[in-house]
Amino acid sequence: MRALALYGAATTLGSLVLTALTAAPALPSSQGVPEAFQGAAEAHGTELAAGRAQALGVKFGKCPASEELPAPVQCGTVRVPLDYAKPRGKQIELTVSRLKAGGKDAKSGKPVARQGALVYNPGGPGASSMYFPLVSGMPEWKKIAAAYDLVGYSPRGVARSAPLSCADPKDFAAAPTQSPVHPSDSYKKERIARAKTYAQGCARRAGAALRHYHSLNNVRDLEVLRAALGERKLNFMGASYGTYFGAVYATLYPSHVRRMVFDSVVNPDPGQIWYRNNLDQSAAFEDRWEDFRTWVAKHDKTYGLGDSPEAVQHSYAKVRAELSHKPAGGKVGPGQLQGAYLQAGYYDDVWAMRATALSQYLKGNPKPLIEQAAPRPEAAKDDENGNAVYTAVECNDARWPTDFRTWDRDNSRLAQRAPFETWDNAWMNLPCAYWPAPRQRPVDVRAAKGALPPTLILAAERDAATPYKGALELQKRLPGAALVTEKDAGTHGIGGGANACVNKHMETYLLTGKTPVRRAACAPHQEPNPVSLDRHALPERIPAAV
């Protein structure tokens, strides 16, 4: 479940197990990157590319119609080397969006002093933040938008930034599909074959370029983007996977950091990356799935799905069983059902919609479920592209078990106590067992004391996509980092969202550089209200990431 999150505007895809790499900690130097983390050629190539980008800048102008970004948002491109070891070789273009800072102080009426560009990455891997400047219209972002240029971009491989593809989008979006909780041996063999075919498709379509799509190059690209924007130091906010390569950037370029916000944190412990983070994530989704069922049971008078979490599970299992024999609308089978209800593990503001759809289906009205779970043909190309980037980055970043017996043993054990998402998560990542490209050397995320300015970590205590212990681990590795925890809540991506306490900490930090005490707690945001069955359901999320 690769996911991406921007405060009420996101969809989910695949599995979010973000990468980390192992080596010695970075030295607090601005003279390039220590060779312990990368070859001398890549270090020199990054420095050369950044210098070139600084000289050229970004020529911002009207955004292409395909971006669907209205004025005054502007768009441009930044050229980066495909291979940083060959900085004068093949170049690729990353698309960039920007809304210039602007606004007046509410009290004095004077223009707010510009503090530079704030670059945002929503994670994935495989998600774009080209839409990020649009948050300027949200009250939670008004003061930040007055002080910063809001900058989004599509990382390498995503959308128009040298897009990757591993399969025909129509085949990738084929529906309906199955999603057995405890798969048979024959089903496992089928999924192994599909994983091998997908990995081979990535290699065939991308060719020699495939090996260059990984987190270290995402970090190098971020360094080049900083230079192209004319920023001496980087202001960056990353959510989900964005926290991981933001932390790698802080490791490699500590003296280039001005302010950094890490929202919903990937566990950077090298021993967790990537495989074990996937297992931890599947276990955490079981707990979050129970949160959803508990809430539905609490509102049994509205939904009629059962007055206990167990009863709600029975209702869900009944729908799953019926869909396996008769897909709703011919397109929604168990696989599509699972994908739709996995979103309930990410965002509680879809709970009412999902509960309504389940209730209506059992009452003989499948329309809400079809509307929420059926694949959208118009999104097939973007969805496949996002999945291809996700797969390439995670497979290139770290070693994975290459013997399916290891996957079978670990996931079979876990599925006994966490059946909701375990096997679907495994299938999402299984191409990495058969990946043809060479793996990257791991980097150990950390900074020396005093090397970094204060940074801010935001985390929900019951986040399933990036379990809370990841935030604790990152705080240990980045001295001076402050952690703000939303207690007893599980929304993935909380900065600028529904919690005013969290937002105040984030705003104060970005505007003043001040962090709270080492650890601060915020009460959970309000539980969602149930939607009566005789009313229109809440609108579906706006897709912000594939």
Could you characterize the architecture of this molecule?
There is one protein chain. By secondary structure, this protein is of the alpha/beta class. The protein is built from 17 helices and 13 strands. Strands 3-4-5-8-6-9-10-11-12-13 form a ten-stranded mixed beta sheet, sandwiched between helices. Helix 7 crosses helix 10. It is globular, with a radius of gyration of 22 Å. Residues 1-36 and 532-546 have low confidence and may be disordered.
How is the topology of this model organized?
Layout: E1 2-4, E2 12-13, H1 40-56, E3 61-62, E4 74-81, E5 91-99, E6 117-121, E7 123-124, H2 142-147, E8 149-153, H3 169-172, H4 185-206, H5 215-228, E9 234-240, H6 241-252, E10 257-265, H7 275-298, H8 300-303, H9 309-325, H10 334-346, H11 351-362, H12 367-373, H13 380-397, H14 404-417, H15 422-429, E11 455-460, H16 469-477, E12 481-486, H17 500-512, E13 519-522
Parallel strand pairs: 6-8, 6-9, 9-10, 10-11, 11-12, 12-13
Antiparallel strand pairs: 1-2, 1-7, 3-4, 4-5, 5-8
Helix pairs in contact: 1-5, 5-6, 7-9, 7-10, 7-14, 11-12
